[in-house]
């Protein structure tokens, strides 16, 4: 069943129930009022808490779908979405799907050149963007091959785009008469390989529906559950966890901010029962409690039943601390890739907290194996590459047969992650085959940072690796080998890196020799041994 039918059903069966709530706590000036009370106060037309029902959600999606159809969008076209989390995000996503076109969510951290690259890679012909991206889009708007329509969501529409709000207001709210089936292409998400260049990951409606079923099976969402969504919706992790609530018509809260007090206040005031966190956010909450900045007895938290974490390895010590303050919480961790429609192809399971440190067992409807370089399954406790198989595996890397053939073999997705299985069948990550650094849930690609640093006149060679970090999981460290006789300080490098996006800047600078093997490749395992003692992921698991 196409995933759009779930929205139609929710709008029919739960028409007047709240589907989505958006909260922007950074705008709230009076902490003594509840967010619901504060939402009734208008200051310069700004809203601090907004909500829509399932009926309104579906009407918004239908309006956008009918507008796109009136503009010539047809089945198989691609509509890119470049928005921060907001109430319009998901209706735009589902409106696109209702036309038979593909939704193409984009990372809000992309630079102008990355936006252009991904739009052209996916062959998008339409871009929907928000106010945070005006400058970046304006820089490239007349140089994007294939993109003929730019729609702006927000006030004060720039001259190079058209106003989404004005255009869709009077469009029909009827469901478009577009026939969709499970095998129809639905969405393109972006990932990156070892070179750091994004790949366009193609999924069909069957994949999206499987993500709904996996999440609901793992975490038993009901109509009465409320899901707190903090991560960006462009990412498969946030959206596919929400899919479990979507499947049963449960409410979701979009919180625009990650401060510990905001998270706990959202749980309290919106009576959230399920919260998905990244390691840094969980760490910040615990630190705030232990400093005395947060008093748990000030919040209504008894209904909060599940805390789960994904996107990076989870230190067992963190969960031990968490259970100290929240002893009644169920806990789960999820492993997945955008190529496997996000989290859940492997998961720990709420009943297996005694196995914290493992990523878990194959998820609902999934198979998993650990294989050697010839594709043969290895013995338990031996290290090999983790491969997974199931209805949520991507169709392909769009327009990249070579890359597809490298990771899809006989229906199995080769993840590029090295792992081992214990005698009970639980899987542990050991190291990454790719040199991706996961810092605070975001992927950093060392080659991109290395290429940038090599432009510095004083640098002879450079290698970027991940170092363990208690809060972020990993941080990027640059090992820099200076040219003979060159003088350069850490402050000089930090100043040079200001031209990099903040999240890509190295957190640590080390001046030392960069070792290379006889074939000229950087010996990153040797660097990890010198500066980490062990592989980053293995160290976290063993602790």
Can you give a write-up of this model?
The chain has about 550 residues and is α/β, with parallel strands linked by helices. The protein folds into two domains: about 5-310, Rossmann fold (3-Layer(aba) Sandwich), CATH 3.40.50; about 440-540, ANL, C-terminal domain (GMP Synthetase, Chain A, domain 3, 2-Layer Sandwich). The protein contains 17 helices and 27 strands. The strands form six sheets. The chain has a nine-stranded mixed sheet, with helices on both faces. It has a five-stranded parallel sheet with strand order 4-3-5-6-7. Strands 17, 18, 20, 21 and 22 form a five-stranded antiparallel sheet that branches. Helix 3 crosses helix 4, helix 8 (about 205-220) packs across helix 9 and helix 11 crosses helix 12 (about 315-325). The radius of gyration is 23 Å and the shape is globular. The two termini are about 45 Å apart. Residues about 535-543 have low confidence and may be disordered.
Summarize this structure as a short list of keywords or feature phrases.
single chain, 543 residues, Rossmann fold, 2 domains, 9-stranded mixed sheet, 17 helices, globular
């Amino acid at each position: 069943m196409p995933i759009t039918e779930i929205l139609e059903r929710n709008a029919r069966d739960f028409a007047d129930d709240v589907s989505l709530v958006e909260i922007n706590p950074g705008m709230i000036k009076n902490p003594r009022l509840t967010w619901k009370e504060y939402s009734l106060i208008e200051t310069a037309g700004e809203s601090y808490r907004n909500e829509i029902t399932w009926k309104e959600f579906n009407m918004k999606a239908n309006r956008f779908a009918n507008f796109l159809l009136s503009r010539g969008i047809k089945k198989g076209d691609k509509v890119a979405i470049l928005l921060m989390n907001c109430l319009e995000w998901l209706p735009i996503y589902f409106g696109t799907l209702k036309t038979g076109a593909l939704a193409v969510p984009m990372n809000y951290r992309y630079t102008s050149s990355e936006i252009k690259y991904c739009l052209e890679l996916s062959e998008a012909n339409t871009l929907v963007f928000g106010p945070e991206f005006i400058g970046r889009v304006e820089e490239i708007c007349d140089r994007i091959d294939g993109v003929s329509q730019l729609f702006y969501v927000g006030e004060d529409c720039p001259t190079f785009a058209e106003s989404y709000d004005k255009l869709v207001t009077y469009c029909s709210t009827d469901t478009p008469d577009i026939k969709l089936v499970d095998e129809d292409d639905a969405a393109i998400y972006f990932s990156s390989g070892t070179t750091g260049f994004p790949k366009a990951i193609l999924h069909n409606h069957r994949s999206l529906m499987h993500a709904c079923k996996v999440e609901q099976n793992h975490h038993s969402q009901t109509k009465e559950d409320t899901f707190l969504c903090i991560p960006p919706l462009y990412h498969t992790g946030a959206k596919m966890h929400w899919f479990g609530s979507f499947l049963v018509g449960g409410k979701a809260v979009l919180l625009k901010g990650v401060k510990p007090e905001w998270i706990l206040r959202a749980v309290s005031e919106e009576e959230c029962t399920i919260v998905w966190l990244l390691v840094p956010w969980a760490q910040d909450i615990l630190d705030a409690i232990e400093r005395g900045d947060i008093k748990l007895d000030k919040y209504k938290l008894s209904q909060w039943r599940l805390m789960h974490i994904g996107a990076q390895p989870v230190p067992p010590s963190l969960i031990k601390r968490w259970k100290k303050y929240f002893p009644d919480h169920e806990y789960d961790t999820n492993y997945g890739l955008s190529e496997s429609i996000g989290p859940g192809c492997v998961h720990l399971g709420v009943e297996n907290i005694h196995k914290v440190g493992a990523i878990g067992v194959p998820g609902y409807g999934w198979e998993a194996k650990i294989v050697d370089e010839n594709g043969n399954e290895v013995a338990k406790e031996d290290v090999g590459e983790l491969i997974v198989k199931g209805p949520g595996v991507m169709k392909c890397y769009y327009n990249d047969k070579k890359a597809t053939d490298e990771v899809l073999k006989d229906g199995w997705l080769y993840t590029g992650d090295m792992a081992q299985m214990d005698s009970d069948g639980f899987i542990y990550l050991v190291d990454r085959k790719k040199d991706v650094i996961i810092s605070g849930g975001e992927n950093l690609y060392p080659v991109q940072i290395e290429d940038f640093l090599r432009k510095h006149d004083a640098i002879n060679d450079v290698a970027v690796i991940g170092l363990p970090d208690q809060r972020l999981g990993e941080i990027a460290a640059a090992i820099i080998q200076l040219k003979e006789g060159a003088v350069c300080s850490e402050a000089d490098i930090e100043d040079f890196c200001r031209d990099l996006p903040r999240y890509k800047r190295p957190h640590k600078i080390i001046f030392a020799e960069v070792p290379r093997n006889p074939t000229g490749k950087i010996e990153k395992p040797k660097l990890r041994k010198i500066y980490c003692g062990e592989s980053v992921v293995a160290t976290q698991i063993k602790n």
